[in-house]
Amino acid sequence: MATGSAGADARPGPAVVPSATQRAPSPMVKSRAMLNRTAMCVVAGMALAPAAMAGSVLPQGAPIDPLLSAIATEIAGIPTQVYCHTSADWSPPDGDPSHGGYATPPNRIDISPSDCDALETYASADPKPTMCGSWTTVSSTIREKVRYRKTIRVKVRGKLVKRKIWKTKTIVHPVEKTVPGPLAPCWSAGGTQVVPRGSGYSVFAHAIQTVAHESVHVLDFRTGVAPSETHAECAGMSVAPAVAVALGGTLEDGRALVAWYSSDIRPNYANPAYTQPCS
Hints:
- This protein has helices at 29-44, 65-76, 113-124, 201-223, 229-246, 251-265, and strands spanning 81-84, 101-104, 108-111, 131-156, 159-185.
- The protein is α+β, with helices and mostly antiparallel strands.
- It has 2 domains: 29-130 and 186-274, no CATH class; 145-179, no CATH class.
- A 3-stranded mixed β-sheet has the order 1-3-2.
- Strand 2 and strand 3 form a beta hairpin.
- Helix 1 runs parallel beside helix 5 (229-246) and helix 2 (65-76) crosses helix 4.
- The chain is rod-shaped and about 115 Å long.
């Protein structure tokens, strides 16, 4: 959500459909170019130290607001303050407490309690709750010693006669077996991993997209681009994998979360501003 402009609406939570006015998308050429450069920088760990790590980047019990503020600052290109709320103080402008977050000009972002809880869990976890065990096939060989009878000819009293003797030989058998492999994203577009609909996986996908979405709004505030929920959704999905990296995840996990968000969460929003195709 982008507040402070007519027609803006709150970004919906994971199980809530938005109900306010739709805003039409705009080209946003300048904003998108800046966003693409920002995404590459965050993924490469050029500005955010946590992006260079894999695992926990948030000590247990530590507030996540400073880390989220650093991420939003990197995306927006100006110092941005992110506030994580509790259920006691969460009051979005549209009055619907189930919405995921909103941005206020020039550089403030407020995040809902449910999304903040998911972000804290993700940032502090190692391994990440969005990573699952995988299986891999290993090829090897088995050597087996086998005894067998062999007929030979020997001289007995000047005559050649047949005798059977025992011999041993080694036979090599190629074998394949399935063994536990490295952790991998719990969902992949190829279908090798499947997440049941309604699982907790959606909570993490939504929360990471919320940070990206609202940060794009702040970037638009800075560049003078009119707020557009469609643009924030689409541009947000392009930078959301970098948000996952900055929270200690892998780029592959971030991309899987965005793919899941795009296929399983976004189509369920009632407001067309959130479901328009991304060009």
